[in-house]
Amino acid sequence: MKLIKSLFLITWCLSSTYLSAAVTQWDSLTDEQQKFLAPLSEKWNQLPEERQQKLLRGAERFKNMTPQQRERAQKRFKRWQSMSPEQKERLKKQYKRWNKLSPEQKKKLKGKYVEFRQMPKEKRQALRQRWQELTPKQRKAFREKLKANTDK
Length: 152
Prior knowledge:
By secondary structure, the chain is mainly alpha-helical. Helices cover 80% and strands 0% of the residues. It contains eight helices and no strands.
């Protein structure tokens, strides 16, 4: 009985591994998926399974977007591609910090962002200029004060 269970388990593992691998081969993708993922065609079969699945989910989301959403996503992707590795790393850290915020903190920050965007251009530029003139120590103190106010 143990032998049968072992053989069954081995057979199941091998077949699921085979099926999993077959699903991710470039030739097994639909024409629509291949069209969207064409820039990756040469290296698709070498990508890790997890990365392939993530890309396939992204392609599915893109397919279901409105034309305006697609245009916005494409602009963001082009901007991402043009960033330096340092800029990308900084943005990833900001994204992680954002995800750690509570819904209330996110709502408050979104409100501040909208408020900033609605300011006259000259006032926004003046605020940016003041920020750039601060020393690293002053910036740190400002961030800490802001964080303390956001946590309330």
